C-alpha cells in the first residue's frame, strides 16, 4: 500500500507543480521557451552532452572496475546514452539507470554487484555536485546565500560520516544491518576511495557538472536572459540540484525551482520557467543517441555473458 502511494506521489507531485505554475503564470512562459529554441542552442547542447556523457561513463567504468564488474569505455558510453534517453522520456528519472545496471549485470552474470556499481557511481556524482554547489553558493551571491554556512556544516558532517563508514571494519555479528554496513563500507573503499580511483571520479563528476551548468547557461541565454555568468551560475546549480527530485521525464521540480529562484533573484519567474523549458528540450534532443543505442541493442544477437571478477581489494589481497 505504501509503495503504491509513493509511486503515485512521484507521478502526481511533479504534475501538481506544473499545474500550479500554469495557474499562476499561465502557459505563456512554456510557449515562449518552446519558441525560443533554435538550431544553434540544440547543437551546443548536443556537443556538451558528448563531453558530459563520456565523463560520466568513465566514472562508471572506474567504480564498476573497483567492484569487480568492469566494462569497456565504449560500452559504458553507449549504456549511459541509453540511460539518459530513458530517464528523459519515462517517469521517475531513474529508469534508465536501473536498466543499465541490470543490463550490465546480465552481461557479467552478477546483477546485484552491477546495480551497486550504478548506485555508487551516481552517489559519487551527487557528493561532488553537492560539494561544488556549496562552494559556489558560499562564494557568489544568490537567494540562499545567507543559509549556506549552515548547509556547509551539514554537508561537511555528512562527508565525515561517509568516510567513517568506509573505515569501519566488519564485525563478527551476523545481523542484517551489520552485513549491509560492512558491504557498503567495502564498496566505498573499493569503488570510490581507492587511491587511483577517487581523483578520476572527482574530476569526471566535476566536468560533468560543469557541462550541465554550461548547458543551463546556454538555455538561459537562448530564453533571453542577459545576466552575467557570475550571477547565473548559482542559479544554474540550484536548478540542477532540484533535478535530483522525483519528476515526470525530468519535468516538474526543475520548472518549479527555476521559477522560484529566478523570481527571488529579480530576473522574473516567467523567464525562469522559459529557461527550464528550453533546457528540457535541449536535454531531450541531446539524449537522442540513446534511442539509436536502443534500436541497435534490439537487433543485436545475445552475447555470451562474462563472469564478474571479485572487487579490486579482494583481488589484491589474493595476490
Beta percentage is under 5%
Q: How many strand units? A: 0
Cα radius of gyration in angstroms: 21 Å
The secondary-structure element order is: HHHHHHHHHHHHHH
Give a short account of the largest sheet: none
Mean pLDDT: 87
Instruction: List unreliable stretches of 5+ residues.
Output: none
Helix content: over 70%
Report, as a whole number of angstroms, the end-to-end distance: 49 Å
Helix/sheet category: mainly alpha
List the domain count as a whole number. 1
Shape: globular
Q: What's the tally of helices? A: 14
Structure description:
With 319 residues, this protein is mainly alpha-helical. The protein has one domain. Helix content is 76%, strand content 0%. It has 14 helices and no strands. It has helices at residues 2-25, 28-36, 39-66, 73-89, 95-108, 111-139, 148-167, 176-192, 198-222, 229-242, 253-264, 269-286, 289-299, 312-317. It starts with a helix and ends with a helix.
Reconstruct the topology from this structure:
Blueprint: H1 2-25, H2 28-36, H3 39-66, H4 73-89, H5 95-108, H6 111-139, H7 148-167, H8 176-192, H9 198-222, H10 229-242, H11 253-264, H12 269-286, H13 289-299, H14 312-317
Amino acid at each position: 500500500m505504501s509503495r503504491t502511494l509513493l509511486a503515485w506521489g512521484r507521478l502526481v507531485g511533479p504534475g501538481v507543480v506544473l499545474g500550479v505554475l500554469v495557474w499562476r503564470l499561465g502557459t505563456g512562459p512554456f510557449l515562449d521557451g518552446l519558441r525560443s529554441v533554435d538550431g544553434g542552442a540544440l547543437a551546443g547542447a548536443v556537443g556538451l552532452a558528448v563531453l558530459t556523457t563520456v565523463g560520466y561513463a568513465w566514472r562508471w567504468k572506474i567504480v564498476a572496475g573497483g567492484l569487480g564488474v568492469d566494462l569497456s569505455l565504449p560500452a559504458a558510453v553507449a549504456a549511459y546514452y541509453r540511460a539518459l534517453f530513458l530517464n528523459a522520456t519515462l517517469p521517475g528519472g531513474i529508469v534508465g539507470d536501473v536498466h543499465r545496471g541490470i543490463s550490465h549485470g546480465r552481461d557479467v552474470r552478477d546483477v546485484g554487484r552491477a546495480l551497486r556499481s550504478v548506485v555508487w557511481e551516481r552517489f559519487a556524482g551527487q557528493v561532488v555536485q553537492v560539494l561544488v554547489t556549496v562552494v559556489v553558493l558560499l562564494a557568489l551571491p544568490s537567494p540562499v546565500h545567507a543559509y549556506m554556512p549552515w548547509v556547509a556544516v551539514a554537508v561537511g558532517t555528512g562527508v565525515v560520516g561517509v568516510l567513517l563508514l568506509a573505515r569501519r571494519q566488519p564485525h563478527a555479528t551476523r545481523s542484517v544491518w551489520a552485513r549491509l554496513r560492512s558491504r557498503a563500507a567495502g564498496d566505498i573503499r573499493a569503488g570510490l576511495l581507492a587511491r587511483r580511483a577517487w581523483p578520476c571520479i572527482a574530476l569526471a563528476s566535476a566536468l560533468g557538472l560543469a557541462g550541465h551548468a554550461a548547458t543551463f547557461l546556454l538555455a538561459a541565454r537562448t530564453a533571453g536572459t542577459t545576466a552575467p555568468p557570475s550571477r547565473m551560475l548559482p542559479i544554474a546549480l540550484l536548478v540542477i540540484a532540484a533535478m535530483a527530485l522525483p519528476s515526470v521525464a525530468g519535468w516538474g521540480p526543475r520548472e518549479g525551482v527555476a521559477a522560484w529562484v529566478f523570481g527571488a533573484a529579480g530576473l522574473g519567474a516567467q523567464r525562469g520557467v522559459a529557461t527550464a523549458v528550453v533546457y528540457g528540450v535541449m536535454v531531450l534532443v541531446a539524449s537522442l543517441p540513446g534511442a539509436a543505442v536502443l534500436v541497435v541493442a534490439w537487433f543485436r544477437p545475445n552475447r555470451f555473458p562474462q563472469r564478474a571478477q571479485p572487487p579490486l581489494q579482494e583481488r589484491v589481497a589474493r595476490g
